[in-house]
Write a structure and sequence with these properties.
- It contains 18 helices and 17 strands.
- Helix content is about 35%, strand content about 15%.
- Helix 15 crosses helix 17.
- It has two domains: about 200 residues, 3-Layer(aba) Sandwich (Rossmann fold); about 250 residues, pyruvate-formate lyase- activating enzyme (Alpha-Beta Horseshoe), CATH 3.80.30.20.
- The protein is of the alpha/beta class and about 550 residues long.
Length: about 550
């Protein structure tokens, strides 16, 4: 068994920017990322919450990570905090950041590793308060709700001040009274207390210029080594019909150019590498000026993803000059018909022109995300995807800089609070056959990547399951696909829909989207009709119900 405390101390010694506080007289909170340190330290949401809690002098907030167990491990690996190397059971609050459904199993293992009772109903006054927030808790908290005392539905800046006030008064008193108090806070779902109005309303920041979201702790031991991550935009208004970002996180909000360049300048005191993040960072109205301005300040700039219809030679030249090797875009569908159906507003000519610009800028790779198994898709749409991939390669080759094409093609996963939330996932056999079509018809030299249909099936269950997911996760001894497959069957989650009843379990949260709007979006999918992009909140509209 590895010495987890020594590993934490060694990692801490290589970090810059962490906060260590004496526990005397302070309320201790553990922010837990339920995956490896290598991945978790590249998660901006975790770093933002870490900074928000440590802004209060009477709190001490520490980080913890859940390392995947070794193959020969017996039982879950102990989880300790980075800063003081204490077990989770020592903290007053254990708060999980749940960004990916596949991390649910790791959360269960983290609780098991330190002896915290798995279910909220089993905990007593001496146990930590166990909470969770993040994207997964916005879309569907029902499957893991039995493990949690409280769930944060929304953006931390809006909710944390109310949590802090409640914890100051109630963390060391009656557990029942504290849960009663938490249930009254807007944006807090206490699973053992029915929401007052039937659902918990998402809380969100209207003006993100009043907040800060950037990396505060840097290390080389991470996926994005020594890179300062800066949030440029929040939410997305494009409304791609498969994507939670375009529904759950709307409306789109952008940080001012001057504020962002100031953050870049501050980041350069610690690292030359700067990553610009956001669900719709490519739609930032000043993106080119931001990238060029950051490059002129001396930053090596990376961007999470771009829109193919927003590529500009000046921006690409700045990215290439700063050492960026890959430009990533997401056409999503191969045919014009399917791009209209999913509300992806880009034409084939725009995609090909984008390939030409990327190739001429001398970048190493042009990575494109596509989906198969979309509602209404047929084989002709898949053949069109192969043809488009081949034409993209031709444009890259013509530029003469050796830029490689990478096509990442994922099976569609119907997500809660999207237009496809009530659709049956495509059969795995159909996905495999269409993957074979692509492999057969793509030209040599195109790097083809695709997820397993079984992985996509598990993702669907984790995303849309009801409370039966909790006993399933409890029963699993490992998180291999074969174990998932067996557990899904044993717990009755292998039907067309992984929930029981007419009303989906995720309606316990209210993200602001009306059911009528989502039904209308599905109707537009079937008629291949576009929906106009969602405007910023200061403009507002009455289309979807959020503003």
């Amino acid at each position: 068994m590895p010495d987890v405390r020594q590993i934490a101390r060694d990692r801490l010694a290589r970090e810059r920017g962490y906060i260590v506080r004496d526990w005397g007289g302070r309320i201790p909170i553990a922010i837990v990322y339920p995956n490896s340190y290598y991945i978790g330290m590249s998660n901006l949401a975790m770093q933002t919450v870490y900074s928000l809690f440590n802004a209060y002098d009477d709190f001490v907030c520490e980080r913890a990570f859940v390392e995947p167990p070794a193959r020969d491990a017996r039982g879950p690996q102990p989880v300790v905090s980075m800063e003081s190397q204490r077990p989770l059971s020592d903290f007053a609050v254990v708060a999980f950041t749940l960004s990916y459904e596949f991390d649910y199993w790791h959360m269960v293992q983290a609780l098991k590793s330190t002896g915290i009772p798995l279910r909220s109903e089993q905990r007593n006054e001496s146990d930590p308060l166990v909470i969770a927030g993040g994207a997964c808790m916005l879309t569907n908290p029902a499957g893991v709700a039995p493990f949690l005392d409280a769930i944060v539905v929304g953006e931390g800046e809006e909710i944390i001040p109310s949590l802090v006030a409640a914890w100051r008064d109630g963390l060391y008193g009656s557990r029942d009274e504290l849960l009663d108090e938490l249930a009254t806070i807007p944006g807090i779902y206490v699973p053992t207390r029915p929401p007052r109005y039937g659902a918990v309303e998402r809380q969100w920041v209207h003006d993100i210029a009043t907040t800060e979201a950037h990396s505060t702790v840097l290390t080389e031991d991470t996926e994005l080594s020594d890179m300062t991550l800066i949030e440029c935009a929040r939410g997305c208004g494009r409304g791609c019909r498969f994507c939670i970002a375009g529904y759950v996180f709307r409306p789109p909000r952008y940080r001012p150019l001057e504020q962002l360049l100031g953050q870049v300048e501050h980041a350069l005191q610690h690292s030359k590498k700067v990553g610009l993040l956001g669900a719709a960072v490519a739609d930032h109205p000043d993106l080119t000026d931001l990238v060029v301005g950051a490059h002129n300040l001396g930053a090596q700039v990376s961007i999470s993803s771009l829109r193919v219809d927003k590529l500009e030679p000046r921006m690409l030249a700045a990215l290439a000059g700063g050492g960026t090797k890959t430009v990533t875009v997401a056409p999503e569908a191969g045919s014009e018909r399917m791009r209209l159906a999913v509300n992806k507003g880009c034409t084939e000519e725009q995609i090909l022109d984008g390939a030409s610009m990327v190739g001429e800028a001398g970048l190493t790779r042009f990575k494109l995300y596509f989906m198969i198994g979309l509602p209404g898709e047929d084989d002709d749409d898949v053949y069109a995807m192969a043809t488009l991939g081949n034409r993209i390669k031709e444009r890259l080759d013509k530029a003469g800089h050796g830029t490689r094409a990478v096509m990442a093609v994922s099976p569609t996963i119907p997500k809660p609070w999207t237009a496809y939330q009530m659709q049956v996932q495509a059969d795995p056999a159909l996905i495999k056959r269409r993957q074979a079509i692509l492999k057969q018809h793509l030209k040599p030299g195109i790097e083809f990547r695709s997820d397993s249909p079984l992985t996509a099936r598990v993702d669907d269950v984790l995303s849309r399951a009801d409370a039966r997911l909790a006993p399933m996760l409890e029963s699993m001894t490992d998180n291999s696909l074969s174990t998932y497959r067996r557990a899904i069957s044993e717990h009755g989650l292998d039907g067309p829909f992984p929930w029981e009843g007419d009303r989906p379990p995720w309606f316990i949260v209210d993200v602001g989207m009306t059911e009528r709007f989502l039904l209308r979006e599905m109707d537009k999918h079937e008629r291949t009709r576009r929906t106009i992009p969602c405007p910023p909140p200061e403009v507002g509209c009455k289309l979807c119900g959020v503003c």
